[in-house]
Amino acid sequence: MNAIDPAIHIAAANIRLDGVSKSYGSVSIIPKLDVEFRAGEFTVVLGPSGCGKSTLMQMIAGLERVSGGKIVIGDREVQDLEPRERGCAMVFQNYALYPHMTVFDNIAYSLKIAGLTKGERRVRVDVVAKMLGLTDYLDRKPGQLSGGQRQRVAIGRAIVREPAVLLFDEPLSNLDAQLRHDTRIELADLHKRIGATTVFVTHDQVEAMTLADRILILNKGEVEQYDTPKAIYHRPASIFVARFIGSPPMNILPVTGDGSVLRLSDGQPVADCDLKGKFQLGIRPEDVLFDTAGNASAVKAHVRYREDLGSHSILAADLSGTTVRITTPFGSQAPDRNVLLLTCPLLKLHLFDAVTGKAIPGAFAATTKVMK
Ligand code: ADP
Ligand code: MG
């Protein structure tokens, strides 16, 4: 393939991690990771600070060595190769542009190192600059650009070499909210056009939900779930995932099953279920309904506070000793009293093992009653 052309897709490669581990001294950061980032997909790696996201990216890029296991990009084992031999380009949070060089030279730098002629460099940089809206800024120095423009230069520098793999480590976290939003849209658009295998680290769930073909959720260096944004949201594999995605997070309530019904800790029956033992029940704030039909099986909760956010309100209520949050769309009628009667469609309930926190799929499937 020649110069990057918006009409041409980069030859994407899949990235396979085969039992990859990383320790610093005796401290294990990533115990053993088996995962495949599919060719041409946009994968978002999401997880709390310190869970090993940057370490993972640096091992793929070759800036950190693996302690064990293999990294395969396309059909090549790369864990022992130099960074420049791996065909990856990386954009960091603190993208350091060369301050004394123009935008053109910043973008063209790697091409110069690679030995391309001036003419070839000009062609490639022009295409990339056009793609990123930087054509009018090529003669400026980084100091004369806005944060968003500098960010785009860093992306331009990464893609100009036509990498098979693009690695982003929290590239948007230094930008203000509006710019973050705009750059996010541009990145999604860019990915559609060039189609490189992209791995994008963030701790921002909105970025994850809107950009990803697939989300990898990491917890202490281990995979909690790896699935599409929809599946992650609607079928979280664990309480960790359920609470990580969604705002406000999913409500989690301790319940006990006697083989026919699940009860809250204060004894109120909350759902028919044939399981026995202690569990955690999950309900998303938007799935809680106010009972208006006088449903005898609705549960009683006491209002603690309301927050009006304009587009919607959040109502916090005490339900059997747990504060649950309920989102109500703007203009909808939240009952104006202190004792609420709440219900939830059975199919919107999630059940988790009380000890492991793992989801119990189909816990309510056998039950036919829809409300309780
Ligand atoms: P994340 O990017 O998810 O916030 P990192 O991958 O940066 O997390 O770090 C994961 C863990 O590894 C953290 O506990 C961090 O303190 C530790 N760590 C990172 N780099 C080093 C290092 N060079 N030496 C020792 N520990 C490190
Ligand atoms: Mg990091």
Task: Give an overview in words.
This protein starts with 14 loop residues before the first strand and ends in a 19-residue tail after the last strand. A hairpin with a 2-residue loop joins strand 4 and strand 5 (76-77). It is elongated and about 80 Å long. The chain has helices spanning 53-61, 103-113, 118-131, 147-159, 177-194, 205-211, 229-234, 239-244; strands spanning 15-24, 27-37, 42-46, 68-73, 76-77, 88-91, 165-169, 197-202, 214-219, 222-227, 251-258, 261-264, 269-272, 276-283, 289-290, 299-308, 312-319, 322-329, 339-343, 350-353. With 372 residues, the protein is α+β, with helices and mostly antiparallel strands. Helix 2 (103-113) crosses helix 3 and helix 2 runs parallel beside helix 4 (147-159). Magnesium ion binds next to helix 1.
Number of domains: 2
Q: What about the largest sheet?
A: 6 strands, mixed
Number of helices: 8
Describe the strand arrangement of the main beta sheet, using strand numbers: 6-7-8-3-9-10
CATH architecture of the largest domain: 3-Layer(aba) Sandwich
Give the N-terminus to C-terminus distance in angstroms. 60 Å
Q: Average the pLDDT over all residues and give the rounded result.
A: 90
What is the fold-level CATH name, i.e. the topology of the largest domain? Answer: Rossmann fold
Order of helices and strands: EEEHEEEHHHEHEHEEHHEEEEEEEEEE
**What structural class do the secondary elements suggest?**
alpha+beta
Q: What value does the Rg take, in angstroms?
A: 25 Å
Overall geometry comes to elongated
The share of residues in helices is 10-25%
- At the fourth level of CATH, the homologous superfamily of the largest domain is P-loop containing nucleotide triphosphate hydrolases
